[in-house]
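Researcher: Here's a chain I'd like modeled. Treat it as a single chain, no partners, no ligands.
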Amino acid sequence: MNRPGSLAALLCAVVLSSCDWYEKNTVQDISGPVPAGAQIKFFNFGVGTPAVNFYAGSRKMTAVLSATGLESTVGVAYGGVGAGGFYTAIGAGQYTLSGRIAGATDHDTAISNLPTTLEEGKSYSFYQSGIYAPKTVDAFIVEDAFVPQIDYSVAHVRFVHAIFNANSLTLYATKTAPPDSGVVFVVGGPVAYKGAGAFMALPGGVYNLAVRYTDSTSNKITRPGVSFVAGRVYTIGARGNITVAPTTTCPATSTTCLDNTANR
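Model: Modeled as a single isolated chain. Structure tokens:
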């Protein structure tokens, strides 16, 4: 009996069997770029609008938690931001974005509709704006074009113009404490309605904010004591009706003010 040969054959069979098992059962290497999709924030800045849930096509993108197991009739009210101010992920592609009435009366009636294309890896902000006429309100979308790398030495701030009856506005930020106390930073150039300025680098600190028409030195809306933390990204959004006396805070009512929302 040729024991060495038999043993070699047996060992070979075991090795081959083990290799076969390894090929079938080992964890596969799936490293590499993963499709990021797009991400989007939703703002209800339409004056006089009812609370809404936001949709992309038939997909509900924002909702309020319900303890009853039934859909909540409390949505995103005027001045509010959907999903607690966070971005909502969505696959890239073509969508009709809408705000639909959350309340029991006229429930799910779309009051805004905006066809748009969301691109892979990009971030966006969708705004309801203007005045709520019978069951309709204006809407627009802007890309949130962040700087590629987070710079922890400065904050980045941009301005979005969502006041339907205001001319182009420029945002000014005045530093309130050293260093740079009293220095006025122009946050981008003039921004027209439905427009967004670029993200600008500002030293971290507390600022007094003001927006002005391009041909004027008088403030149209102000907001004091706004903190910008280095390493963070912010959007200052002008909302309301320019003919209504503005407030220096931004309560959740149909007032004209400067909203401050962190992008990241």
